[in-house]
Design a protein that fits this description.
By secondary structure, the protein is of the alpha/beta class. The chain has helices at about 25-35, 70, 90-95, 95-105, 115-120, and strands spanning about 15-20, 55, 75, 85-90, 120-125, 140. A hairpin with a 6-residue loop joins strand 3 (about 75) and strand 4 (about 85-90). The protein is globular and about 55 Å long.
Length: about 150
Amino acid sequence: MKTYSQKASEIQRDWYVVDASGQVLGRLATQIATLLRGKHKPTYTPHLDGGDFVVVTNAEKIRVTGSKADQKVYYRHTGYPGGLKVTSYKMMREKHPDRILRQAVKGMLPKNRLGRRLMTKLKIYTGPHHPHAAQQPRPYVPRAQG
């Protein structure tokens, strides 16, 4: 029996809307990464973009466990000597709450052209409303951890 490999012409994409209010950051990010990658489908092929579009609402209401709210920091570099910038979780949550979830999901995807293409299918909004109603996204209920 031959192993099935999905072709680019056979890809079927759906739209999901995820409510992030009250969800734990890392656990939600893994489920979003799975949806973007297409690993939840029986036709999953590692080298193809066979995943779905994901719309995340209420990104500002995401939570972290333990003392991460006080201790977690985000690093970035400007490219110039001495250009290391450090941003605390609290500051990031005040100014750009969508970037917290975006960076968590990005770290769980491949670090190549495929990963960059997968990130374009992730839409994150801080409020409960989004402009993708025309795509008729289905509500995605994250599965319970246990």
